[in-house]
Structure formats: structure tokens, C-alpha cells
Amino acid sequence: MTAPSDLGTARPASPDLLRSVFRRHAAGVAVITARGSRGPVGFTATSLASVSAEPPMLSFGVGTGGSSWPVIAASDHVGVHVLGEHQRELAATFARSGADRFGPATAWRDGPEGVPVLDDVPAWMVCKVVARVPAGDHRIVVAEVLLGDATGHGRPLLYHQGRFNGLRD
Questions:
Q1: 161 exposed, middle or buried (CB, 10 Å; 0-12, 13-18, 19+)?
Q2: Among 39, 34, 60, 40, which Cα is nearest to 49's?
Q3: Domain 27-153 CATH (choose: 3.40.50.300, 3.40.140.10, 2.30.110.10, 2.40.50.200)
Q4: 5-24: per-residue pLDDT in tens?
Q5: Cis peptide bond prior to 55, omega within 30° of 0
Q6: Pairing between strand 30-36 and 163-166?
Q7: What residues form DSSP beta bridges with 73?
């Protein structure tokens, strides 16, 4: 498909165009965790979305080329953690390839269903995976919320223009 000439700087669809557009879209930041046979895994996600209130369900995207994917692909349960603006470094750690995500700098504990639960987050949930939907080089994971805690402190962490930011009033 070609763009009509009256649309100015419109470009054909490409991975670069999609990244450019979504750099302008502010998104909340979450960390998804799961327990694998070799220990805990996790990654930073900006694709977290509410799917259903009854039953309570959510979704997130995960790249099939990422180090966490094999564990997420096989796990029955995942942890979903909403990060606060005080957790920029934690978000960066879980986004960085090759990082020691569950090393000494990360405070966490074993939660229900063996899911790693991060400490000091504004909110967390343990969820049962109900579907993994193919979507290009990603999978959309749909999960039912089993339990959680939304009583943590902190304002939300956002991802915008390729950086982690706090919410401005």
C-alpha cells in the first residue's frame, strides 16, 4: 500500500515505523516473572493490558527470541508486577539482555505457585496462563488473575521516547 501524496511524511509499514510511532506512546511498565527448571526468569513489559473483569484477566506480549520465552512458553503461572517511578533501575535490569535479573540488587521472594514475586512494587498479581496467541515474532499471553496486592507505594513508572520516566502532574 502506498501513502497518498497529501499525507506528507507518511511511510510504508516497517519495524522502524512501528518503533517510531510507539516511542510517542507512553506506556506503563511491568515486570513479568516465572519459575523455570533452572531458576526464576523475568522481563520488562510495556504491553500489559486488562482483558476482562469477570473473570479477571490480563494480557502481555513476549518476544519469542527473548531469553525468558522458553520458560514463559512452558509455565502454567506468571507473576505480573506494576513498577513505580522509584524502580527505573529495576526496569532497566529486567530489560537488559544478559543481566543478572535476580541477583543481589533485586529484592524478591517465592510467591504462590512458585512464582517469583518482586518486593517494593506498587502492585503485583499471580496469574494462571490460559492462552498464548501467535503474533508475528511475539506471543500474546492471556492470563487469569488468581490473587494479588495493590497496596504498595509509589507513583507509576512510564516508558516514553525510549526512556523510563515518572508521571508528571
A1: exposed
A2: 60
A3: 2.30.110.10
A4: 677 788 899 999 998 999 98
A5: yes
A6: unpaired
A7: none
